[in-house]
Design a protein that fits this description.
Mean pLDDT: 97
Distance between the termini: 28 Å
Largest sheet: 7 strands, mixed
Oligomer: single chain
CATH superfamily: Glutaredoxin
Order of helices and strands: EEEHHEHEHEEEEH
Structural class: alpha+beta
Number of helices: 5
CATH topology: Glutaredoxin
Length: 153
């Protein structure tokens, strides 16, 4: 069962790019933008991450923290975070527990080829760890994603 609006997020979120355990309780009292993306260092995912980087101070002023998640390794996340100068953690969900819990892992098609992957999806979570809004893959414009969210807050 995928998590939905009104559900509390799991306590254990995973390890970040430095191997540090990230827990939902680390963000108690803060609102959270939890965004899932397919792959480090690809054009769309880089554009999306940079849109959050470039608008990071605006999110902070509104009381939001940002967390990115993909199934890439900690090492891949380290390189991506450094190269793009991302000011927020990236969770390495290598065992796919988080993408599956949030219902963003499934069959995708590219050029007629079917494969399993992450659906680009963003969850807005309140100070108590409860999902308030879900922005699905069809709604997300990678280059403007941060601004799309800010316009709704």
């Amino acid at each position: 069962m995928a998590l939905k609006v009104g559900d509390k997020i799991p306590e254990t979120l995973g390890k970040d790019q430095d191997g540090k355990e990230i827990k939902a309780s680390d963000y108690t009292g803060h609102k959270l933008v939890l965004y899932f993306y397919p792959k480090d260092s690809t054009p769309g995912c880089t554009a999306e991450a940079c849109s959050f980087r470039d608008n990071f101070s605006q999110f902070r002023k509104l009381g939001y923290q940002i967390l990115g998640v993909s199934v890439d390794s900690e090492k891949s996340h380290q390189k991506f975070k450094e190269k793009q100068q991302l000011p927020f953690p990236l969770i390495a969900d290598t065992n796919k527990s988080l993408v599956e819990a949030f219902g963003v892992w499934g069959e995708k098609t590219l050029a007629g080829r079917k494969y399993m992957g992450t659906f680009r999806t963003t969850f807005l979570i309140n100070e108590n760890g409860v999902i308030e809004k879900i922005i699905g893959p069809k709604e997300i414009k990678t280059k403007e994603h941060a601004q799309q969210i800010l316009n709704q807050l």
